[in-house]
Structures are given as C-alpha cells and as structure tokens.
C-alpha cells in the first residue's frame, strides 16, 4: 500500500549542564573556578530527498531523537555538542502539529531543508559566575531542556495536472500513453492504489508533470472507498483532466458521471473544484455512431459552461495530442509556481513557550503565593539554597524572569509566604 501519511514523535537534544569545579594546583591552595560549559543539544532537521516518493520509512520507525549535549568538565573543558538528526522526506510532504492538525511547514518549492526544533543551549560552568565579591561560586547553569513534538506527515503529490474520473474510464491507459509512467492496468475497480506520476514532453513546450489519482466513487469525500485517501494528491494541481467513458461501456451516463465526480471534488475542497478543467471524452474508438452517441450530449452540457471537451482514445492515441496542447495552454495561463501551503503553527515558538512557561497564583485557602513551572523547578533543582550565594542567585533568577514582578502585581506584601515546589519563603522587597 502506498504510504502517504505517518504520525511520528521528534525530540531535539537537551543542552549539557554546566560544571562546578575548582583548580587544584600544587602551589595554588585556593584555585579559582574552572567548571566548563555544557555542549549544545542536537537539532531536528527535515530535508527533501528527490529520490523518495513515499513515507514508508516513517511507518516502520516512529520516534526520532537528536543527541543530548554533554555536560561540561573541570579545567574549563566544554562538553561535546549533541548530534543533529536529519529526517529525509519526499518533495511535497506537509508537516503538521499532530494535536491541532495545523501546518508547520510544507516541504515544497524553496523549502528544501528546515530546522524544525533547535537543541537546548548548554549551561554555563561556574567559572562564569566568579566576581570580586564571590570568588568561589558553588553553582553552574543547567542546560536548556529538550523540545518535543508529535507530528503528522502527509504527502501531497507535486504535479501540474491531475487526472480524475470514475474507475475503469481509462486514466491509467491514458497516463501510460502520454508519459513514461508504467501504471498497472486491469479491468476491475481501484486497480490504481498509488498516485502514479509521469512527465509529458510536448514539442515546443516545457512539458508538465501529470498524476493519475485513483478512481473516485460517489461518497469519496466522506471516506467511502479509496477516494478520500488520495484526494489530497490533487490539492496542488493547477489543471484537472476529467476523463469520462464517452462510450458508456459499463452502462453509465457520462454526463451524470462528470457531475458526480465534481460533487466529490467540491465536497472535499471547493477550491479544487474551481480549478481549470478539461474533459477528455475517452473510448471513442468503440463508438460506431458518433453523431448519435452521447459525445454530443457531453459537449452540449459542458462547453457552454466554459469547460472544453476533447474526444480521445487512450488506446489508439486519437485526439490525445490536441488535448495535451490544450492543457499546456491552460497551464501557461495559471503560471508556473508550485502551490506551497502556508504555515499555521510556529513549532519553535510554541514548544519554547511550553518549556519556559510558569504560573504565579495566590492560594487563598493557605494564604500563600504559589510559583510553579518547568523552568522554575529545573533551576531550583540545580541551586543550593542553603548557601547565601546560591539563594541570592536564585532570587536574581526570579527577578530576571519577571516572577517577582508578577507577585507584586498580585498584591504580595512583606512577610507574605511564597511556596515554590516544597520550599516556603518569606517575601521581603
């Protein structure tokens, strides 16, 4: 089965912690601090690989983690940076945030490589905190935490032209004739399970990419049959070739078939239904009385609506070249830019806000102010509050993050209690 969707988990690398140490030299009894900095965590990077055309690799492996930065060492030794992780995807892959479904990035057009999540910065060693009044700092900065996201990967095939139509109308035969594609062809519904791509070369033109989308049935936009799974692949196409069995070899009404498919396109995405469309009235090689056939009925119904109708035979090739030149003219009118879906979700900003967030609230029941949050808890765990210098360092952290300002905004007064993860403090300005 063609793998065009996958759900994965990604995590950047954690920054290495800064180190606490002091020089110990033979004739220097009280050496200064020499704790090194932690290494930087690895990034999560997505890169387009033109050699890929499915997301099958992400079905087999679903968790991807960049390397963590190493902690700093003594003698000012800096920890090694964590290794980046590079995830290769086929062109046309749309990366979404799993919970909201919002688009983070569309790996199309100029988007060939993107750093989705940056690794955490390494923490500073205690050598950075020495001052004239504090020559032996006993604390170092922890590394920044890793960032994580659950993602939905969705492949939307990049093609200029999409072929649509009911099963068995000859789409695969048409694609095989006009391109170098080799789709499987047989006389049963849903033969085409994969969106087949091919390049059309026309004399005097740049040519274009065409995609055979699996046969649709009524109800496809609601998930009936295989149609829903593949409708996404025509979202980028600029022109739609609507192939219909003009001979009615299966006893169907070609005019009603065209309306049925257009209803499905409109139900799935009205914008797609408004794309320029041309009707390829196929199988004219088996129409013996053309003047009395349904071919005229198709023209009379749709040409007044501005939709050109071209009688063709995908088997013999009759009328095919004229159809292709018409499609090329329509493409020239729409322009050559690849459709790239706009971002809706800033992954780096959203994850950073989640990791760095904190809450400052007043607990009326216990008559105390409560400060909580991942960053506060982490800093508290790395600070020696029994040391006056350590306590002053933590107090500076509360001020620099704006926590003290929020406490004052809540009306805190001297002598009030502040509780931070099991520690209670008396507030004094």
Number of helices: 11
Tell me the major beta sheet: 6 strands, mixed
Q: Which bin fits the share of residues in helices?
A: 10-25%
Cα-atom radius of gyration: 32 Å
What is the tally of beta strands? 18
Any key phrases for this structure?
429 residues, alpha/beta, 5-stranded mixed beta sheet, 21% strand, elongated
How does this model look, in words?
The protein is of the alpha/beta class. 23% of the residues lie in helices and 21% in strands. It contains eleven helices and 18 strands. It has helices spanning 57-60, 171-178, 227-231, 254-268, 270-273, 295-302, 320-334, 347-356, 374-381, 388-400, 403-409; strands at residues 5-11, 44-48, 63-65, 85-89, 93-97, 103-107, 113-117, 148-155, 161-164, 196-200, 208-212, 239-245, 277-282, 309-311, 359-363, 368-372, 417-420, 423-426. The chain is elongated and about 105 Å long.
Task: Summarize the model shown.
The chain is an alpha/beta fold and 429 residues long. 23% of the residues lie in helices and 21% in strands.
């Amino acid at each position: 089965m063609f793998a065009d969707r996958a759900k994965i988990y990604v995590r950047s690398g954690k920054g290495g912690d800064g180190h606490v140490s002091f020089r110990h030299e033979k004739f220097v009894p009280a050496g200064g601090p020499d704790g090194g900095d932690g290494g930087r965590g690895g990034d999560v990077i997505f890169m387009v690989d033109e050699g890929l055309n499915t997301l099958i690799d992400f079905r087999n492996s679903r968790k991807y983690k960049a390397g963590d930065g190493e902690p700093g060492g003594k003698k000012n030794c800096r920890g090694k940076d964590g290794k980046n992780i590079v995830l290769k995807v086929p062109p046309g892959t749309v990366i979404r945030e799993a919970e909201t479904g919002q688009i983070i990035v569309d790996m199309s057009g100029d988007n060939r490589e993107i750093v989705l999540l940056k690794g955490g910065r390494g923490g500073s060693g205690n050598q950075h905190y020495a001052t004239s009044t504090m020559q032996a700092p006993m604390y170092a900065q922890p590394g920044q935490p890793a960032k994580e996201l659950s993602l939905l990967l969705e492949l939307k095939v990049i093609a200029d032209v999409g072929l649509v139509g009911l099963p068995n109308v000859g789409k695969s035969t048409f694609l095989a004739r006009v391109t170098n594609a080799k789709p499987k062809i047989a006389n049963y519904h849903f033969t085409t399970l994969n969106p087949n791509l091919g390049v059309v070369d026309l004399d005097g033109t740049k040519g274009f990419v065409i995609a055979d989308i699996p046969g649709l049935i009524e109800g496809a936009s609601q998930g009936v049959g295989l149609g829903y799974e593949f409708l996404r692949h025509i979202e980028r196409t600029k022109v739609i070739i609507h192939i219909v069995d003009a001979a009615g070899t299966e006893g169907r009404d070609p005019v009603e078939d065209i309306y049925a498919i257009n209803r499905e396109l409109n139900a799935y995405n009205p914008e797609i239904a408004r794309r320029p469309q041309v009707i390829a009235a196929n199988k004219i090689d088996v129409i013996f009385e053309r003047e009395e056939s349904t071919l005229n009925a198709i023209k009379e119904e749709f040409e007044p609506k501005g939709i050109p109708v071209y009688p063709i035979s995908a088997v013999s090739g009759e009328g095919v070249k004229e159809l292709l030149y018409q499609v090329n003219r329509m493409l020239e009118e729409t322009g050559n830019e690849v459709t790239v879906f706009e971002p809706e979700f800033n992954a780096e900003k959203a994850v950073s806000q989640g990791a760095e967030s904190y809450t400052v609230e007043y607990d009326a029941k216990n008559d105390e102010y409560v400060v909580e949050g991942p960053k506060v808890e982490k800093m508290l765990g790395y600070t020696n509050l029994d040391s006056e210098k350590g306590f002053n360092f933590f107090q500076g952290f509360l001020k620099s993050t704006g926590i003290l300002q929020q406490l004052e905004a809540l009306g805190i007064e001297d002598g009030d209690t502040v509780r931070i993860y099991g520690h209670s403090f008396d507030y004094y300005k």
